[in-house]
Design brief:
This protein is an alpha/beta fold. The protein has helices at about 20-30, 50-55, 70-80, 100-110, 140-145, 160-165, 175-185, 205-210, 215-230, 235-250, 255-275, 280, 285-290, 295-305; strands spanning about 10-15, 35-45, 60-65, 85-90, 95, 115-125, 130-135, 155-160, 190-200. Strands 1, 2, 3, 4, 5, 6, 7, 8 and 9 form a 9-stranded mixed β-sheet that branches. Helix 1 (about 20-30) links the parallel strand 1 (about 10-15) and strand 2 (about 35-45). Helix 10 (about 235-250) crosses helix 11 (about 255-275). The longest helix has 20 residues, at about 255-275. The relative contact order is 0.12.
Length: about 300
């Protein structure tokens, strides 16, 4: 079936003390109907029973458990061990949907020129109940500056391109996936597969919600858009300014805080862009939507869902 076509895909799971969820993740990979999956779990020295779970799957996956420097370090380590032609990673509390890998590999083989294939992703709570959908859209490199339209668990890319751009950054704390998408697609194509490929679990121990300084995430977004696009988009600047103010004036009424953040953001936007960037003017309708609520979706879900 796969003669003269791409055959092997390598999936890496970075893991640390997610013993409550990791077996669901493992099963979602091993139960795919695609035959040629190399699965690697890189554990950071868990002490919660994760290693005992991994031992149950000896012979069906590769795994190591040793101290590392966080998930990006584990991902890089896993990919350095991998031999597949296509790469992807899934966190130890997320899972793939059935047939996801087959759909992805079919798409890569239909479009040999593309660097990345990504699809839809649903948010689930700690019990696995669906609580929302991760915002994704057909690929547009310029719009990627404005919003991360790629859902990490549903993204897959060619090993050759990953290696050519230098792999995943070990310097970023919250936006390493976003940084990678930009570098992978700067001179290459990406294809959007409008089907659910994964479920992203939101809970307090997860990286997205467990991280206690969301300002860092938005600071990194601005750093990256300035680096790659020479642009600080309006909807990146506003939340960054809002969280800076929240850190200093968290008891202030929300309406007053939002007004102050807007004034602060106007100043920061003009300072960073040395005026008004025409790219923001072209995206006013979409920017308004993102400015009002789109950029804070994960955090909105966090504060409104008791099962996280």
């Amino acid at each position: 079936m796969h003669n003269n076509l791409l055959s092997w895909i390598s999936i890496v799971t970075p893991s640390y003390n997610q013993g409550s969820y990791i077996e669901t993740t493992i099963e979602s990979v091993l139960n795919q109907n695609y035959p040629n999956i190399e699965y690697i779990v890189v554990d950071g020295g868990s002490t919660d029973g994760t290693v005992e779970i991994l031992k149950k799957y000896e012979g069906r996956l590769k795994w190591i458990s040793e101290k590392d420097h966080g998930p990006e370090d584990a991902i890089a380590k896993g990919f350095s061990m991998a031999t597949g032609e296509i790469f992807g990673w899934i966190a130890s509390d997320d899972k793939y949907e059935p047939d996801a890998i087959q759909k992805v590999m079919d798409k890569f083989n239909q479009a040999p020129e593309v660097a990345m294939v990504y699809g839809r992703c649903q948010y689930v709570d700690r019990n696995g109940a669906v609580i929302g959908e991760c915002p994704t859209e057909p690929f547009n490199y310029d719009y990627l500056a404005v919003y991360n339209i790629v859902a990490q668990p549903s993204a897959f890319f060619r090993r050759s391109v990953y290696e050519s751009v230098g792999g995943i950054s070990l310097e970023l704390r919250q936006a390493s996936d976003y940084d990678l998408w930009i570098r992978l697609t700067k001179n290459q194509e990406a294809i959007y597969l409008p089907e659910f490929l994964s479920s992203y679990r939101l809970h307090y121990a997860a990286k997205t919600l467990g991280f206690h300084d969301p300002c860092v995430k938005f600071e990194e977004y601005i750093f990256l858009t300035m680096k790659y696009y020479n642009w600080a988009p309006a909807n990146r600047v506003y939340p960054c300014c809002l969280y800076r103010l929240k850190a200093k004036a968290w008891k202030m009424p929300s309406c007053m805080l939002s007004a102050m953040a807007l004034m602060y953001a106007v100043y920061e936007y003009i300072r960073l862009n040395k005026g008004v960037d025409s790219r923001d003017l072209a995206l006013i309708p979409r920017n308004i939507k993102k400015l009002m609520f789109g950029w804070e979706l994960e955090y909105t879900i966090k504060f409104h869902n008791k099962n996280l």
